[in-house]
Design brief:
about 150 residues, Methyltransferase, Cobalt-precorrin-4 Transmethylase, Domain 2, 6 strands, 4 helices, four-stranded mixed β-sheet, globular, alpha+beta
Length: about 150
Amino acid sequence: MTLNVSTDRPLRSPRQLLELVTAIRDAGEHDENDWIEWKSSYDLTKKEVRATLARHIIGMANRMPEKSAAFCQGHGYIAIGVEPGNVEGVTSIDLADLDSGLQPYLGHQGPPEWSASYVSLDGCTILGITVEPPQMGDLIHTLNGSSRTTSQG
């Protein structure tokens, strides 16, 4: 089974993000691809979870631009609280707190561009993170603590 959602454009609106998380719920367990990542549930208040989320964001931002452009015009998506056949949801936190909690891991100088929002599916709150498309010549993003950056292009 493949993910049943249109990937010819970025998924930005609440309705489009709901379509994405619904497609994840209805997907097969092997439908994950390099443009989409899902996790059943995370406690967003925990430091180690924020470090893990930062690694996922960095991974999306470091995809090869020409390959990533094949789906959603290069945008990457991380859905927390849903996986194939299972909707657990997350306990929502203020998105400004999420941003400030991820910032130490993403760095302050040229961090990956991302945004987050919540949608509701099957009575549960799902966190959707959208990572902006990588571009040729972008610096390689690293988890904060490593000062080495190189160019992709």
